[in-house]
Amino acid sequence: xxxxSKRLFYGxxxxxxxxxxxxxxxxxxxxxxxxxxxxxxxxxxxxxxxxSGAAALQQVESALLGPVLGWFLDRFGPQGMIRAxxxxxxxxxxxxxxxxxxxxxxxxxxxxxxxxxxFGFFPMNVALINWFERWRARALSSLSFGLAIGGxxxxxxxxxxxxxxWRATAFGSGVLAIxxxxxxxxxxxxxxxxxxxxxxGLPARSPTVSGESAPRGRDFxxxxxxxxxxxxxxxxxHGFALFVVHAVSVHxxxxxxxxxxxxxxxASLAYMLLPLSQMGGVVIGWLIGDRxxxxxxxxxxxxxxxxALLLLTYALNLAMVLTFAVMHGLAxxxxxxxxxxxxxxxxxxxxxxxxxxxxxxxxxxxxxxGPMVAGVLADLTGDYRLGFTIIALLAGLGSLFFVVARxxxxxx
Length: 412
Known about the structure:
Elements: H1 2-6, H2 10-30, H3 33-44, H4 48-76, H5 79-96, H6 102-118, H7 121-129, H8 136-151, H9 154-164, H10 166-185, H11 222-226, H12 229-259, H13 264-288, H14 294-313, H15 318-347, H16 352-381, H17 385-403
């Protein structure tokens, strides 16, 4: 009995492995892509719009694959998909190091994007949702630590870009992804029931006694979820949040170097405060996510995204830039894990892969629109002010979607 009480639920080992995988993906490309944009634009002369297109291409590919990946995850589980994704991601980064034209850059980035989709935030969330219910928000918030810690590596990537060049950095990143990522991917499993345990590692539920509510008999199907207002409102709110997140990831460093006059190293150091603050937001979500209304917390975070981006857009001094990084990081770290946790709370876990996959086809509007709106308008006007302002106001509008997205009733 004593030995049994000391055994840690395997789901938490999966949380650690998933968080480390997210750290690799975030640090090597997702949050460091802005540093690549600044270097490639200076060296190759490619426009902001063209480079933004690569980031948009990744999101479009992910959205198109979403329903297929969701069906596969529900039917076969995430483990094989995650392992394949790590290998493709690493090979894509190696291929990226050999590109000499915009066309081959896009081709390499397609492979990177495919790998990132297969072991990205979406399949990781599905994997953990199947292992947690009572501590779901806490587990998904812990997963976001990886994204934040990876973002803290952006100055290191920027240093490597400046010291060794973008080709050597991309190739080394690909090798690192495979060598470190595959052992972590091997730890991901399908459902706890397949391994002789239960969700959350808790004892099996006994029949309810008088006065207690019985657990819900079944979950929403994907078709039933699509018929609810909550599905569309949450997806739209999530998409409007990603207008800001992806515009900042791609263009913030370039705005700080070209618009605000900082060096690449200075901009990367200022940007590092963002993922550090994101970790603070994750900790707050870890503490309060299973206790308070997630949709109202998400609505508040949307207003923080708006205010933060406006501070960066019209920054007059370093204090405004640093305030942006803290506010945006806190909002992202707190809100991000709730996007999947709310859906799992509302619709259950039986068809969560397909439900999240279908959601990707809606939120891609923000994933693609954020970088493209900012990039196109920067090329047309000469700076990021107009594009960033529009995106910030969209985030403020998006807060309303979460306010009205109440939990639906399960159909009879």
